[in-house]
Amino acid sequence: MALGVPLLSHAFVGANKPLKMGLQLFTIRDALAKDLNGTLKAVASLGYQDLETYGFEPEAAKYYGIDASAFKSMLDRLQLTTSSGHYDFYRYFNQSEDALRRYVDQCIQGAKTLGQKYITWPWLDPESRAIDKFKLLAQKLNQVGEQVNKAGLGFAYHNHDYEFTDQHGVNGYDVLLADTDASLVKLQLDLYWVMHSSRLTPAELFKKQPGRFVMWHIKDMDRKTRDYTELGNGSIDYTTILPYASLSGLQYYFLEQGGNFAVSSMQSIRDSAGYFKTNLKPLLR
Predict the structure, then answer these.
(1) What is the pLDDT of residue 285?
(2) CB-based contacts of 165: which residues, under 8 Å, 6+ apart?
(3) Helix spans in the chain (H)
(4) Which residues form the Xylose isomerase-like TIM barrel domain (predicted)?
(5) Residue 10 pLDDT > 60, yes or no?
(6) Eight-class DSSP state of 199
(7) 194 C-beta neighbours (distance < 10 Å), count
(8) Of 64, 78, 79, which is closest to residue 31 (Cα–Cα)?
(9) Among 60, 260, 26, 270, which residue's Cα sits nearest to residue 158?
(10) CB atoms < 10 A from the CB of 162, how many?
């Protein structure tokens, strides 16, 4: 593949198998807390098919306050899947290797119960964002990736803005790209934060390591405040990004909006789904 030529292809997910429209559930955390089943039913009615979870309770093996197997049954009844979960690895960053390994085993158990394909590391505490900490993070990501891959699942790292902060000519994302094993640690690219804070475009990142960016977070950026906004209301032109899906290695994507809702979180996922289905999803077929 010529890196300068974006290709629309299904080769990375199988012929004639379009990607499911996904939602990161953190977007609607307020609604989920009030009515889990009713909210998920509404999500399915909007055309979302795949979900990314957050908030796993490791000791009790629960998601959103219910047993993992009960949550899986709820998803099955609604014909929803979950391909990835965000897990709280940051809590174990400064703990022992044994503590981290035990937590990873718990995450593996939960993810397998739900039928997830990927376990994702989504966050770093502010005190863990210096370059030396990113070098330590790379080591930990490789260790966790090996453990997760041996269990038959994929492992990925999710970025925010702080990975792109310049620290004397280098940034955290440079370290992670260089020091993590691409066969063990895949990347979930948050396209909003790339457009917000990176000196490189998504396409330029994809060209650095084609095939490694297996998941995307898709959300828009307010034209004035640069805060989150509903898809189609902001400044990010996804028609220039989506054609690089094959180059990136895209397998799953999740629409997300962390806050700044025009009306409510549920109205925002409705509006974003409508815009995405009409204007952007055809680019992934």
Answers:
(1) 59
(2) 129, 171, 172, 197
(3) 29-34, 36-45, 68-77, 97-114, 131-150, 172-179, 191-197, 202-208, 245-248, 265-275
(4) 40-242
(5) no
(6) S
(7) 24
(8) 64
(9) 26
(10) 17
Instruction: Please check the confidence at residue 104 and state whether its pLDDT lies above 80.
Output: yes
Give the residue-averaged pLDDT of 190-206. 98
The angle at the Cα of 197, spanning 146 to 139, to the nearest 5 degrees, equals: 20
Dig out the tokens for 88 from the structure: 């709280």
- Domains parsed from the chain with CATH numbers: 22-284 (3.20.20.150)
Confidence grade of residue 4 (pLDDT, cut at 50, 70, 90): very low
Tokens representing residue 46 in the block: 């909007």
Global pTM reads 0.94
Going by the DSSP 8-state scheme, the letter that residue 170 receives in this structure is B
Rounded Cα–Cα distance for residues 161 and 1 (Å): 30
pLDDT at 284: 82
Angle at 194 between CA 190 and CA 198, to 5 degrees: 150
The letter for the amino acid at 67 is D
- Give, for 34, the enclosing helix (H) or strand (E): helix 29-34
Amino acid identity, position 225: T
